Amino acid sequence: MKILAIETSCDETSVAITDGDKLLCNVVSSQVEMHEKYGGVMPEMASRLHSENIGACLKEALHQSKLTFEDIDAFAVTRGPGLIGALHVGVQAAKTLAMLYNKPLIPVHHLAAHVYANEFIGQLEFPLLAVVVSGGNTEFVYMPRHLEFEIIGTTRDDAIGECYDKVARVLDLGYPGGVPIDRLAKTGNKHAYDIPQPLLHDGSYDFSFSGVKTHIINLVHNAKQKGEQINVPDLCASFQYKVMNIIIEKALRAAKEYDVKQVVIAGGVSANSYLRSELPRLLELEGISATIPPLWATTDQAAMIAQLARHLYKEKLFAPLTLGADPNWQIDDFRNF
């Protein structure tokens, strides 16, 4: 069974092809350099670049896998969540191919695919807790069994990745902000600045990072007005320590309350070195296994779309050619399209 998968939810155009459980290719065209000068993703520009890049990515994927479109058994695509214009490019491309070659069309939920990217490391063990952390999402998802998702916690405002990007912007660290903050945090004093931890002890599994972002923006602006120097490594270390520990402490509590066998970390922020080291260490003390995707699978790419599509193909979760993109598609509603 050969599946061609397309991912265009944000600022990476990607095409992957799998043959059974073998990944034949994973072509990624990143737009980071283009958006970096603006300090964040420009949605209209992202859509235009996807339109320009999708043809070349499809051609390169077929070249690397030594296949033709006629060899493909199904076409999979990210339907949501994401930027509506960006999603639209991928959905239209997949629908066109499915129609031309009369093959099934598989709609894939972007966050669910991030969860299943952990299968590149090993099998998922149920029940599990998925800690989904990315630029657009922060969610705790309980999975009692395969392909069943229950959202038990989510962000009430900003996602964790967005918070990192905004903090990096005010500190002139560039975009995306996760990598420079993570790097500088390793050399700073994590107790140097007092950073708030909203909702840490509220008893829920929800998150709120807007106040943290605002606190740091005000802190930096006030320091500049007073002519005071900000110790950037110390502020990065303090920020990362406090926000990551909100996620870690809540994940530990949820893992024990829901009596899960495994915790998987998913999404772009799963590349964070502190999260990757600290959460598994603490879970191990509780006798709970932890799985972290390989670094190449933490960013948006079509390999994870193809990985989940393999399971959806077996369930015959195929979409009609009237399928549309849904930027707000909920993970617990992934069967409805």
List the helices and strands and how they pair.
Elements: E1 2-7, E2 12-19, E3 22-30, H1 32-36, H2 43-65, E4 74-80, H3 84-101, E5 105-109, H4 110-116, E6 128-133, E7 138-143, E8 150-154, H5 160-170, H6 178-185, H7 210-226, H8 232-257, E9 262-266, H9 273-285, E10 289-291, H10 302-314
Parallel strand pairs: 1-4, 4-5, 6-9, 9-10
Antiparallel strand pairs: 1-2, 2-3, 6-7, 7-8
Describe this structure in words.
α4 (110-116) crosses α10, α5 runs parallel beside α7 and α6 (178-185) packs across α8 (232-257). A five-stranded mixed β-sheet has the order 3-2-1-4-5, sandwiched between helices. Strands 8-7-6-9-10 form a five-stranded mixed β-sheet, sandwiched between helices. The mean pLDDT is 95. It has helices at residues 32-36, 43-65, 84-101, 110-116, 160-170, 178-185, 210-226, 232-257, 273-285, 302-314, and strands spanning 2-7, 12-19, 22-30, 74-80, 105-109, 128-133, 138-143, 150-154, 262-266, 289-291. The longest helix has 26 residues, at 232-257. It is built from ten helices and ten strands. It starts with a strand and ends in a 23-residue tail after the last helix. The radius of gyration is 20 Å and the shape is globular. 42% of the residues lie in helices and 18% in strands. The protein has 337 residues and is an alpha/beta fold. The chain folds into two domains: 2-114 and 298-333, 2-Layer Sandwich (Nucleotidyltransferase, domain 5), CATH 3.30.420.40; 123-292, ATPase, nucleotide binding domain (Nucleotidyltransferase, domain 5, 2-Layer Sandwich), CATH 3.30.420.
